[in-house]
Design brief:
The chain is an all-alpha fold. It has eleven helices and no strands. It folds into two domains: 177 residues, no CATH class; 37 residues, no CATH class. Helix 2 runs antiparallel to helix 3.
């Protein structure tokens, strides 16, 4: 199951009767997943491009957390909330983009690697601030900023390169397309489809070759030398072709 599939599974569940602890546990799982998913965008070598990829990750994270806490919001509204929470927490996307661009221009490749833990902590902080917001929409800006700052520090300490590498490998191995069983079934279907596509070509080739080889089997040159009726050998292949 890919990380997007897991988030979709969370949104499909009804959390109305769930306890606050259960909601909080699931929301934190969503933050953990999205923090690693967001970190993958830091590996994009093009400056600014990683930010464009990170915003959708933040949006779907906020949308899923909101669903857990009973707020049915779409991706557009989730993006707006993510930007507003980021602004309240003192997070400047423009500043983040500038830092990202400078790193990648001055340190190509290395800048991307250095940005992975930072992006993880950034997403972790925004996710935890989102949880606090949905649990208590009346929190002040100062309270939200405290939650964000503390969560960013926690995210930096929580980040694990081994866990990141496992997450990255899991996504690159094709998990977004389903489980191993689903991929195996899909591969078998593709093979059978490929075979069925080849058969008509082979049969057509045989039919096309048949008229050419027929005169050789019937030894058509001999009747021409022995008889004054050369039309018969040439008529037979035409009938077979039709």
């Amino acid at each position: 199951m890919s990380w997007l599939d897991r988030l979709e599974e969370v949104r499909k569940n009804d959390w109305a009767a769930a306890s606050l602890e259960s909601k909080r546990e699931t929301a934190r799982e969503v933050v953990d997943i999205c923090s690693y998913a967001g970190s993958l965008t830091s590996l994009v070598p093009i400056p600014i491009a990683d930010l464009a990829l990170l915003v959708p990750v933040h949006s779907v994270m906020v949308m899923t957390i909101g669903h857990v806490y009973g707020r049915k919001i779409n991706e557009t509204e989730a993006k707006r909330i993510a930007v507003e929470l980021g602004a309240v927490a003192g997070l400047s996307f423009a500043g983040s983009a500038a830092i990202s661009a400078i790193k990648k221009l001055l340190m190509p490749g290395l800048g991307s690697v250095l940005g992975v833990p930072a992006t993880f902590a950034l997403t972790w902080g925004l996710g935890r601030a989102s949880i606090a917001y949905f649990e208590n929409p009346n929190l002040s800006r100062d309270d939200l900023q405290k939650v964000f700052d503390e969560a960013v520090r926690e995210g930096k300490a929580t980040f694990s390169k081994d866990a990141f590498d496992r997450f990255r490998k899991k996504q690159s191995e094709g998990d977004p397309n389903g489980s191993k069983e689903e991929r195996s079934s899909s591969n078998e279907h593709e093979k059978s489809t490929a075979k069925s596509d080849v058969k008509p070509d082979q049969s057509t080739a045989k039919r096309e070759q048949a008229p050419k080889s027929e005169p050789a089997r019937n030894e058509s040159p001999r009747p021409e030398s022995r008889s004054d009726e050369p039309k018969e050998p040439s008529l037979r292949p035409r009938k077979r072709t039709m």
